[in-house]
Amino acid sequence: MFLTTLLLCLSEWVSASRGHDRNSTIVNPIFPGFYPDPSCIYLPEREHTFFCASSSFNAFPGIPIHASKDLQNWKLIGHVLNRREQLPRLAETNRSTSGIWAPTLRFHDETFWLVTTLVDDDRPQKDSSRLDNIIFKGKDPYNPKSWSNAVHFNFTGYDPEPFWDEDGKAYITGAHAWQVGPYIEQAEVDLDTGKVGDWQIIWNGTGGLAPEGPHIYRKDGWYYLLAAEDSGGTGLNHMVTMARSKKISGPYEANPRNPVLTNANTTSYFQTVGHSDLFQDGNGNWWAVALSTRSGPEYLHYPMGRETVMTAMSWPKGEFPIFTPISGEISGWPIRHEQEDIRGVGPYANSDDPEHLTFPPSTPLPAHLTHWRYPIPSSYTPSPPEKPNTLRLTPSRINLTALNGNYAGAEGQTFISRRQQHTLFAYSVTLDFSPTQRDEEAGVTAFLTQNHHLDMGVILLPRGSATASSIPGLPADLSNSTTGGISDDGMVPHVRFRGESYVPVPKPAIFPLPESWRRKGGKLALEIRACNASHYVFSVGPAGKRSEMRVVMEVSNEPVSWGFTGTLLGIYATSNGGNGTTPAYFSDWRYTPVEQFRD
Ligand SMILES: *[C@@H]1O[C@H](CO)[C@@H](O)[C@H](O)[C@H]1NC(C)=O
Ligand SMILES: *[C@@H]1O[C@H](CO)[C@@H](O)[C@H](O)[C@H]1NC(C)=O
Ligand SMILES: *[C@@H]1O[C@H](CO)[C@@H](O)[C@H](O)[C@H]1NC(C)=O
Ligand SMILES: *[C@@H]1O[C@H](CO)[C@@H](O)[C@H](O)[C@H]1NC(C)=O
Ligand SMILES: *[C@@H]1O[C@H](CO)[C@@H](O)[C@H](O)[C@H]1NC(C)=O
Ligand SMILES: *[C@@H]1O[C@H](CO)[C@@H](O)[C@H](O)[C@H]1NC(C)=O
Ligand SMILES: *[C@@H]1O[C@H](CO)[C@@H](O)[C@H](O)[C@H]1NC(C)=O
Ligand SMILES: *[C@@H]1O[C@H](CO)[C@@H](O)[C@H](O)[C@H]1NC(C)=O
Ligand SMILES: *[C@@H]1O[C@H](CO)[C@@H](O)[C@H](O)[C@H]1NC(C)=O
User: Residue 538 CA: which ligand is closest?
Assistant: First the structure.
């Protein structure tokens, strides 16, 4: 007993005396929420900073960049795609799976290079305009204006990455799925003009139907080729595989121990692990980032979509690397612990601090707020003269579903949001809205794509539209209370919950806005809460009267657990195809983290 205690004390003393050598703890995900397909670099010449890009599909601003100096505290520092003129075509993409796919971020010649694909998934596989491959470059990722307009290059695949060989030649490597491949192709490229040479197949992968995110690393006289493989997109069989060659053009030989990283066939909460990128820190230790969904193998409830996770790897000389499998907490290489400040545009990515936006006068909208495709800037006015300290939304004709569930249209879609970043959270706003024309609507939404969203808003509907008896927990005195403000044409403001998804959603719940709530100044509190890992609760009540909040709907998050993106929590205003133009005023925007589930 005594001896054990002594030994324990001794070993603690030994490790304490070499504190800087102690392993670090990496807490996953490092960027919670909708941040898939990570690509990272480490730049000692830029204040020893790590930079990572992620894909953004139809979200705008697009291609978020995170930075860190210690691999533990990460901040969003801006977006590569931040102006419409950089890539006008994002306005026209159809389908929820379209937009910006997997970017690769690299640094060469004192320049940041970001190579990616703008996908219009509505077009046939054989249509060469379906995949628009593009290059952005910039000198200063902290300055949005520094990023160039897109330079297009001819490539019929996706997930391109730039690589500079020791002889100075630049190459693009990209992937093709089963419709034509599967294989990985490579060509020489002039990255300034987008002129490419002949494409050559360099590897066919290990049998997955859709190789993605190929990356080349030069080490110990070898070219190592890394790819993710799966049956297409991301699923439970997602994995990372590697091959190597003495020549950049191949032939590449598969690692006999593939896959190098996967959580397939495990019971881990972290599933679909794949789409990795590798980088070395200032001590020469190797790290990997990847995407993962916190779903468990049931794979039913993952509203935050594909998030960025990180792990450590060891890469002995002349051999293939060994990765530590992904979990909620990973013992990683020693790293410096002092948190050096990063000039971010928001809080730290893994922060549990609440967010409270009050839209004060003369203050632009925070840069982390997100639209779906390009916004019409004049539809979003912080602190308008008639109602300071609110955000005025001008309604779009198109609602969150739009015409065919796919297209934003030239008139835009009035919607602004932030990512859901915690398993349990509360998101609420105050709404001041007096609709005057039929179908005018404004409210809150848990939005995954135009085909997947759960909304609760105030909408002007004919008297008698209520379905109040279907609202659980709504007291009878509210369901059939008389309302004030009935207009001559019999229109009444109602609260409406509705959902849209590929899986069944509850029927709309509609009830007239109680007169007693309207008398109290007419402002409403609208709230979306995740009460557990599988359900949201939508509530409404008079602003400033928590005790009068009423649950309108408890709804599974399965309708927003799908595809490539992750849930955005936000506000919208629409005329639902009508002629209404009544603005909606939102204030007191709060996002309160409650709990993060990791294992
Ligand atoms: C997207 O769909 C809309 C309406 O269905 C159509 O008018 C438009 O041409 C499509 N855009 C592209 C780029 O295919
Ligand atoms: C792409 O290919 C087309 C036709 O094949 C050609 O006209 C065009 O110049 C090429 N663009 C680039 C950037 O190489
Ligand atoms: C790789 O795929 C291509 C195209 O499908 C095929 O021509 C080639 O034989 C394959 N290579 C190997 C080594 O299987
Ligand atoms: C998981 O198990 C299935 C069935 O044995 C197998 O076909 C599949 O390849 C495994 N996936 C991975 C990534 O190992
Ligand atoms: C320290 O981290 C490395 C990299 O993950 C791992 O290989 C090693 O086992 C860890 N050591 C301890 C004592 O946990
Ligand atoms: C409200 O409706 C319920 C049934 O839906 C009924 O039992 C109740 O009497 C009604 N209350 C009033 C005040 O009309
Ligand atoms: C989550 O909450 C919903 C709605 O309250 C409830 O029906 C469900 O049983 C809960 N699930 C768990 C695992 O507690
Ligand atoms: C959404 O708008 C379209 C017209 O653009 C309309 O037909 C549809 O009914 C609206 N959806 C809802 C739920 O109001
Ligand atoms: C919208 O305005 C146009 C032109 O004034 C009119 O023809 C149309 O009926 C209006 N639509 C609705 C839904 O009121």
Answer: 7
CA distance 196 to 188: 6
**What SS3 class is residue 351?**
coil
Q: Residue 139 class from Cβ within 10 Å (0-12 exposed, 13-18 middle, 19+ buried)?
A: exposed
The residue whose CB lies within 8 Å of the most ligand 2 atoms, and thus the one to mutate among 152, 153, 154, 189, is 154
Least Cα distance to 513 among 444, 566, 584, 435 occurs for 435
Q: Which of 317, 351, 312, 315 is nearest to 334 (CA)?
A: 312
Rounded CA gap, 288 and 256, in Å?
20
Q: What is the helix (H) or strand (E) element at residue 495, kind and residue range?
A: strand 491-500
Q: pLDDT tens digit string along 135-144? A: 999 999 999 9
User: b/e string for 183-216 if b means 16 or more Cβ within 10 A?
Assistant: bbbbbbbebeebebeebeebbbbbebebbbbbbb
Place of tokens 């690397």: 321
Q: What is the residue type of 379?
A: S
Distance CA 28, CA 325 (A): 12
- Residue 354: C-alpha distances to residues 190, 343, 594 (Å): 46, 19, 9
State in Å: Cα 493 to ligand 9 middle. 20
What whole-number distance in Å separates Cα of residue 326 and Cα of residue 304?
A: 17
CB contact at 8 A, 562 and 384: no
CA–CA dist 569, 444 (Å, integer): 7
Q: Read off the pLDDT of residues 363-408 as tens digits, 9 standing for 90 and up.
A: 999 999 999 999 999 999 999 999 999 999 999 999 999 876 677 6
Supply 182's token pair: 């599967």
Q: Report which ligand 8 atom has the smallest distance to the Cα of 400.
A: 1
Q: Which of 48, 78, 50 is nearest to 344 (CA)?
A: 78
237 Cα nearest atom in ligand 4: 13
Q: Give a three-class secondary structure readout of 266-319.
A: CCCCEEEEEEEEEEECCCCCEEEEEEEEECCCCCCCCCCCCEEEEEEEECCCCC
Enumerate domains of the chain plus CATH numbers: 16-332 (2.115.10.20), 359-595 (2.60.120.200)
475 lines ligand 6 (CB under 6 A): no
pTM: 0.93
Under 8 Å between Cβ of 514 and 478? yes
